[in-house]
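Q: What structure does this chain adopt?
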Amino acid sequence: MSGAIDPNSVALSITNSSIIVDRIYTITSNVGIQINTSGNSAPTPSISNSVIVGNNNGVTVSDGGNTESLLRPIVLNNNTIAFNNNGVMVNVAAGSPVDFVQIINSILSGNASVPTLSTPRSGYAVSSTTADRVTLRFNNFFNNGASATNYADDTNNIGNGFDPAALNNGRDALGNVPGDPAFVFPIDPRPEAEGPLRFFVDGNYGIRIQSAAIDAAENASAPTLDFLYRSRVTIPGRGYPGTGPADIGAFEYNGTPTNPSFPIIVPTASSGGGSTSTQPGGNTGGTTTGGTTGGTTGGTTTGGTTTNPVPQPTAKPVPQPVAKPVPRRPVVRKPLPKPPVRKPVVTAPVRRPVVAAPVRRPVVVVKK
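A:
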């Protein structure tokens, strides 16, 4: 793809459906997932284990102004929603059901427009036209909104007990955590950023040991398996009371170190944030202050509780391939060619010379 995103494009549109959407990618669309509801007891979808990145609007929810009630809330759980101009936009009327959308165990990172020399950053991780219609619990916020260093502008008009400014002081009362999700290789596929081609070649939204998302999810709301069908893994020294072993986001950190023979090269910084964790604290990356250290070596916090170093799993030996014996091919001897059979030469018969018969002279009788 080249040029700007098509302003009319929608990757997935859902209207009055109880469909379960699981393990999908949506990128470079005007709307990644569009959810529409209307009427009484409207059926609603659930979106889980999905990666929604690089769209103008990651997820858009609209009730059309006439949704009287829902069969259940729209649920977005354990998704990775990153590098959209707006992460989730909820367009509902004042008379819409109160518990309209629940966003749980999801990573919301880098959701803001790509700034230019003349246009500053703008956008939100989550925005609603009417307060108290969205519930945010056990999510990981990082680097969203107009300011990359202040969580207060990450959301707009949410209500339901959520205050984004509280994330500047650490984990809030609803289980939402600030800090770098530490993606393995976060490529922003928007055309004005790094582009879709590089995303398809290098993009990797798995998480590393530094991630603030590790073991921080509400386990009861998390799918049993992650995007790659991996089980949940407890990482010693990580998470919070009542959370884990599930991680926030679509990918579970499985605790396996990089094979030293084939290291994964990761950037020290990306358009979505640096590689170090900030938990709690600003969106600028760096060392943990007043909380638990989330680095690969563990250590002691400043102004908080001293923690033991995070134990690292022992690298498994790389199995060496056993050389298989090369089977010998049997020697096939070709039979000696038989000498050609020569046909006997048939000589032409010798023709004897034709002896001409003597010419008889006529007898002349003389009468006397």
